Amino acid sequence: MGMGNVEEPQNSNISSAHQLAGAAAGLNLYDTASHAVSPFKPIRPGHVGIYVCGATVQSSPHIGHIRAAVAFDIIRRWMLRLGYDVTFVRNVTDIDDKILDKAAAAGQQWWARAYYYEREFTRAYDTLGVLPPTVEPRATGHIPDMVELIEHIIRNGHAYVVRDAEGNPTGNVYFDVASWPHYGELTHQKQGVAETDEAAAVADRMGPSVDAAGDDKYNPIDPADASPDKHDPRDFALWKAPKATDPQDARWATPFGVGRPGWHIECSAMSHRYLGEAFDIHGGGLDLRFPHHENEMAQTRAAGWNSAARWMHSAWVTAKGEKMSKSLGNGLSVPAVLAEHSAWVVRYALGSVQYRSMLEWSDQTLTEAQAAYERVSNFIDRAGAALGEQPGRDEISAIGADALPQDFVAAMNNDINVSGATAAIFSAIRDGNAVLSQVQGALDDTTRAQVRATLVAVRAMLDTLGLDPLADPWAVASADSEDSKASKALDALISAQLEARQEARAAKDFATADAIRDSLTSAGILIEDAPTGSTWSLK
Asked: Which residues bind Zn(2+) (predicted)?
């Protein structure tokens, strides 16, 4: 988004249909603030406003970053499939202590570094099939919005300006936590009060705590928040005086002194700018619940605005049980992972569990994703060959939720239960393969209709998860991809084996024929014999 420019948002929808599906009434989603799954009812009928915290563009994206993007992309796609008109806002934090410090150490302009890595994040999103946001505002483009918001909070008595000995504003402004009795309501972590709900406490222990002593390895303390000028240790920076090392073009003049924005104020200002005083869902990673989202909720409401109606958080990607992050040295960069695995496989792996579940990243995770790709592509190719056509993208994207299999709809409506939805996809694939295996010669009209309906349903379900192999970006890359080459090579090898088996059977060399079948079976290949010849599929 340009520097403060506002244009009418253009929707990036996977479905052109805007009629709300009957299935929309059954959608239930978790809310971090209530610790409960409850029916979803939008503020405006037929429309959903979603704000998701995007990247701090200090360096290259890693798999942990992109997992959150994929998780909320799936949520958004399901809303669209239900027929909602979705405004999806994902911000870019392009000014931050880490950006300034790393740029200085590398001899770069801070804004040039931020833009370079912003583009790298965009390439990663595009490569992994994440729909572009309706609006993607940059923090630096919304300084006037932040200043206005801070002035609201000060006037309402919930923030204070730090002044020097002569009474001049220093550039430091802090939120006065003691003045806001609702502080802590998002994460249910009142200082000194233990969480009594054990199920909720398990989730809270996975993230930072209000009562945690010492530095937090996932959310290092902002130097401004460690200032002795604060009235209360819990108070947090809304506006920060510049460090001596900060460049001149990283400072803005305001009524409360020269400085730059605190981290939390950015999202309150940008969500209000594009979604108004009330919107449906605020999303982000689990590690943002505290302090970022707790502080964001407090300052937004203290300004006199409504906060998000529902807060949703995606869990971490873990490596051997530890959160994947740059600060811990176990981050896997997206380019490095994509150098070894296809983008479809990586996307499938990132979205393979429900968004609130921790995702353990391992070779086994990727192996299972590769096997899923082979099962999916094998069925789609096989069904298309039997039909002599593939349904067009317009047909697939126009399929509403009410036309999808009930078990898939039930799973997605159950707080976006992707595991259950995936099970429904593979159940349909098994049924489709079973019908195809019984075919002798050309399809009759009844069987053709059955196969086509299954193929459309499978592709529409996959499309809801961003995984239809014949949609962009997969269709663009599929012809020359390593997966395509591997699939063709596999088909050639197995076809040669089936031909050799057929020759052995013709020669009544049943021992050789059985040995070939057993070898293929042990490799996970299912052989179906018919009068017209043998076909294969992955188990």
From this structure: 53, 267, 292, 296
DSSP-H helix ranges across 388-528: 393-397, 406-413, 418-437, 445-464, 474-478, 482-506, 510-522
Using the 3D structure, point to which of 344, 377, 411 is the last residue of a domain: 344
CA neighbor of 40 nearest in space, from 20, 70, 69: 20
Per-residue pLDDT at 227: 80
Buried b or exposed e, range 177-201, using 16+ CB within 10 angstroms:
bebbeebbbbbbbeeeeebeeeebe
Residues 248 and 375 occupy one common structural domain? no
Cα angle for residues 221, 225, 229 (degrees, 5° grid): 150
Residues 246 and 321 in one domain: yes
Domain that holds residue 96: 22-344
Residue found under tokens 């069904």:
383
Annotated binding-site residue? 148:
no
Domain boundary among 474, 498, 519: 474
Q: Taking the complete model, does pTM exceed 0.90, yes or no?
A: no
**Cα separation, 421 vs 353, whole angstroms:** 10
Residues 55 and 173 grouped into a single domain: yes
Q: For residue 55, what are the CA distances in angstroms to 87, 100, 111, 512?
A: 19, 15, 15, 58
Q: Do 102 and 162 fall into the same domain?
A: yes
Do β-strands 322-323 and 317-319 pair in parallel, antiparallel, or remain unpaired? antiparallel
* Residue whose token pair is 């009068």: 531
Residue 350 domain flag: no
Q: Is 18 annotated as a binding residue?
A: no
For 322-362, list the strands marked E by DSSP. 322-323, 359-360
pLDDT of residue 7: 40
Report CA torsion sign: 473, 483, 61, 417.
positive
Q: Is 267 annotated as a binding residue?
A: yes
| Residues 88 and 150 occupy one common structural domain | yes
C-alpha closest to that of 81 among 459, 399, 468, 471:
399
Q: What is the mean pLDDT of each run of 10 residues along the chain (539 residues)?
A: 39 57 98 95 97 94 93 98 98 95 95 96 96 97 97 98 95 96 86 42 38 43 76 95 94 96 95 95 94 96 95 90 64 88 97 95 94 96 94 96 98 98 98 90 90 97 98 72 60 81 86 87 78 64
SS3 state of residue 96: coil
Q: What separation in angstroms does the CA of 19 have from each of 15, 436, 475?
A: 10, 34, 28
In a domain, residue 355? The reply is: no
**What domain count does the chain have?**
3
3-state secondary structure 135-192: ECCEHHHHHHHHHHHHHHHHHCCCEEEEECCCCCEEEEEEECHHHCCCCCCCCCCCCC
**323 marked ligand binding residue:** no
Question: Would you say 185 is a known binding-site residue?
Answer: no
- 440 φ, ψ (degrees, to nearest 5): -125, 110
Secondary structure of 195-250 in the HEC alphabet? CCCHHHHHHHHCCCCCCCCCCCCCCCCCHHHHCCCCCCCCCEEEEECCCCCCCHHH
